[in-house]
Amino acid sequence: MFAEDACGQSSGSGCLAGPWPAPRPLEGVKSNKRPVFEIRGAEFTCAGGANEASGISLCLSSRIAAIGEAGRAAVAILLGEAGSGAGEVWRHDALGVVHLAPKALAGGRCLSGGYLAAIEVALQERPQVVVLDEALPDGDAEWAKAFHKTLCSEALRSFHGAVVVAVADETRALAPVCSQSWVGHGVRVRQEPYLEVIEDALDEASSAADLLEEALSYDYCNLAWWVDAARAKNQKVTLFASRGVDGKRTLRGFLCHHVKEGQAELHIRFIFVPKELRGSGLGARVVRWVIATANRMPQSECRWISLKAADASLVPWYEKFGFTDMTCGQCDDEDEVWMELPNDSIVVGNEE
């Protein structure tokens, strides 16, 4: 997982120390709010299945986090690496997109300065859109450092074109950069406000007092019990929030979880989404965040993800994420159902 404390560090590399080259002008685009790329009800393939996307849009002021496989599929269309079936994809005829990723920059990596120097060369094309790719499956430690530094640089934030950051999951480090996200909900990919993730909200340094106060205010769910239990057992409470146009944060999800000591198992204790937001896909985003978090842990630390479905009716929903009912269906409807998912770690050299 990319380090949150990398942000704010200075660098002498040209692509970070000074502003990026201004994008080339686009004919007919006089405002940075005017769309330069749109996906309008297009169909495409993602993770071996049929998916559809609509309402996906980029303008020159966009700051987008493309989350997971679904977000990456939309990025592939933007890059021209993948087509779409029925529906419509529109882009400005002269739109220039630069892909900052290990494979895309391989030719310039041999330059003195490595990836950061290669980024500087790539930006001389003066693109209107920059795609910064975490490329986590590549397992490239040098690129991981370059990615961190670029993501947290003032040069990226002050760029006068659009920025799309392709990542495996939502983290707090992206919150200062991205205001929107491309994220999957079932078979649909949508553009939504970016979720800020406060991974350890019980840590006083997390500055999550406002969100904890909101969580404790819900009278139809006793979240105070889960907060107290997490404190007593040294477990984690992770909060998910979005910001309004006034900058105020609003709680979108609550997660209690912990790693079972000596068992290499990440256990989900409780997931909560406010009533008015249920059915919007937020619960799925929380579950996918947990899975992505486990994927970034070595097998020696996490071999399994486990949970107890509150009742049998929730089992099919969790099965969509790959969880297996370990009771083989031998539970009454009102019983909690133990479920497990093997952790597909992407950490290189993760065997004990």
Automatic annotation (TrEMBL):
Q: Which domain of life is it from?
A: Eukaryota
GO terms assigned for molecular function: acyltransferase activity, transferring groups other than amino-acyl groups
A matching Pfam family: Acetyltransf_1
Ranges for domain N-acetyltransferase come to: 195-344
PROSITE patterns found in the cross-reference section: GNAT
**InterPro entries in the record:** Acyl_CoA_acyltransferase, GNAT_dom, P-loop_NTPase
SUPFAM superfamilies associated with the record: Acyl-CoA N-acyltransferases (Nat)
Q: What is this protein called?
A: N-acetyltransferase domain-containing protein
Taxonomic source organism? Alexandrium monilatum
